[in-house]
Design brief:
266 residues, alpha/beta, five-stranded parallel beta sheet, 5 strands, 9% strand
Length: 266
């Protein structure tokens, strides 16, 4: 009788997993997969001869300063994934790849543009991850101007011959009501420009149990899960793990054995 009960528990657990809905990263990955840049990205990753220069630009969250308390930031996790963990899966030794992070604490999209020659154009990147919105929202940058800033950054990235990847900002503890509009502005720009997207906002909403809150009108501001945050704006080391996981899933680059992608979130 005890054995039968155990079997039923296992069966129910299996069924609950198998019928659970796909999370937002799966939806974004499917959307990305239809874009030419997605095929180009995977062609780059599969090329044994040519190393990739991955460039991260953004604010303090991409910078990864202070609030991680010594844990890896999500760009550092990305370096581990692409330079080491992806190798057994793709059969391509990517240890000659270079990951550069020029993000600066307190930066906005407009501020980055005034320093683009130093933080972007001096390099010859293949892929550029763009993550702004937290400070733009805090400082009240108009949504039209914010979208225009992102579009100009995308234009500069493409002029370098690189693949741009837009990222929505994460959640905040205080759940300010204007935050969802900045996430929506990133999504709209990604759609207008046919750019690869990593939707951290949606992934954090999924984690918080309120999927899609910022994607539909009226848009709802959801507070960030406290265990992923160091203060109102900045993820801690666990939050950066979720961001790395979302990044990898959204781009379809998830080595199944990856210790990084299996790190606990609390």
């Amino acid at each position: 009788m005890i054995k039968l009960r155990h079997l039923l528990i296992v069966l129910l657990a299996f069924l609950s997993i198998s019928v659970s809905p796909a999370d937002s990263s799966d939806d974004v990955q499917a959307r990305n997969a239809a874009l030419p840049d997605y095929a180009r990205l995977h062609e780059l990753v599969g090329n044994k001869e040519t190393p990739i220069l991955w460039l991260f630009v953004g604010d303090s969250i991409t910078h990864g300063c202070l609030h991680t308390h010594g844990y890896r930031s999500f760009p550092e996790h990305w370096m581990e994934i692409v330079k080491w963990e992806i190798m057994p899966v793709r059969g391509v030794r990517r240890t000659n790849d270079i990951v550069i992070n020029t993000a600066v604490s307190g930066e906005t999209a407009a501020g980055f543009l005034s320093h683009a020659a130093w933080r972007l154009q001096q390099f010859r990147p293949h892929v550029v991850f763009i993550n702004f919105g937290i400070n733009d929202g805090t400082r009240g940058r108009s949504l039209d101007d914010f979208r225009a800033d992102l579009t100009q950054i995308i234009t500069l990235v493409r002029a370098q011959g690189a693949i741009p990847v837009l990222q929505t900002p994460g959640l905040t503890l205080k759940a300010e009501p204007y935050r969802p509009d900045y996430a929506a502005a990133v999504r709209e720009t990604a759609e207008d420009q046919q750019v690869l997207l990593v939707d951290h906002t949606a992934a954090w909403e999924d984690y918080a149990g309120t999927p899609g809150a910022s994607a539909t009108l009226p848009r709802q501001a959801v507070p960030a899960p406290a265990e992923l945050m160091n203060d109102n704006l900045h993820p801690n080391g666990f939050g950066h793990r979720l961001m790395a996981r979302t990044l990898a899933q959204s781009l379809g680059l998830t080595p199944g054995h990856s210790p990084t992608l299996q790190l606990p979130l609390r």
